[in-house]
Design a protein that fits this description.
The structure is a single chain. This protein is mainly alpha-helical and 195 residues long. The chain is built from 10 helices and no strands.
Length: 195
Amino acid sequence: MTVQSGRRERKKAATRQKIADTALRLFLERGYDAVGIRDVAAEADVAVTTLFSHFASKEALVFEQDEDFEQRLTRAVTDRAPHEPLVPALRHEVLALVRHCTADSAAPIWRMIDASPALRKYDESVRLRHADALAAVIAADPALNRSDIAARTLARFVIDAYSLAREAPDPEAALDEIFPMIEAAWEATRPPLPT
């Protein structure tokens, strides 16, 4: 049963990727607003219901790696070595994500997002969801010993750092400037040592 289950999952993942690749190609060729869901489904040779079983909305087609992005951020917290400081681990992952999103191949996608009010709004909601997920894993880590508010604040700062760096002329220099401020804010929330 494992082989069949594995095959089914691979086929499902391949269909999802085919839909996302087709959508992105059409959006970049014709413009986001000029392409409908039915156009994407027809070009990908899938039913509209199949498309919606993989993607909740037209905007989600553009952000198809959204789940991976969120998992990478949360794993930067949960998979770090014991006693590894949190903020440098987050900075390392944010830098990798910014490099991916500022690669030359990503520029047309971000121009399309920036030009579309619907995509900008969706991007904002995605960032808030990422911040909530990141805050939850930070707050759940007993070794960090911080309040929910401190965890939520750090998560928002990290997500904003990603956005600011992605838009900066020199993303790495932007992170070099931003993360010491984040580190200082995080350290300011450290509970006082018992006396």
